[in-house]
Amino acid sequence: MSENIKYLTVDNFDEEVLKASQPVLVDFYADWCGPCQALGPIIDNLADKYAGKIKIAKLNIDEHRKVALTYRVMSIPTLFFFKDGEIVERITGALPQAALEQKLDALL
Prior knowledge:
Blueprint: E1 5-7, H1 13-18, E2 24-29, H2 34-49, E3 55-60, H3 65-70, E4 78-83, E5 86-92, H4 97-107
Parallel strand pairs: 1-3, 2-3
Antiparallel strand pairs: 2-4, 4-5
């Protein structure tokens, strides 16, 4: 696990995502989700590669269901790309690291 990943909760979501000064990628996941586990190492790599430029965050939907419901997350993994507190893009399902890097580069 990368120390550059921010773990989100109901209490810190607004501050860490909506009020962030840099773009944010939020990975909505669950520990029991196979595709989420497969995506985990990619998210870790992205957190290290984009440290200081883009905040990479994860939200456990089982522990913070209210946030998942607010954003209508119905299947996981679901990735949200935020810039200036607004959702720029939403992806459901896992993508290769190169495809995610293209999307992150577009936010910079």
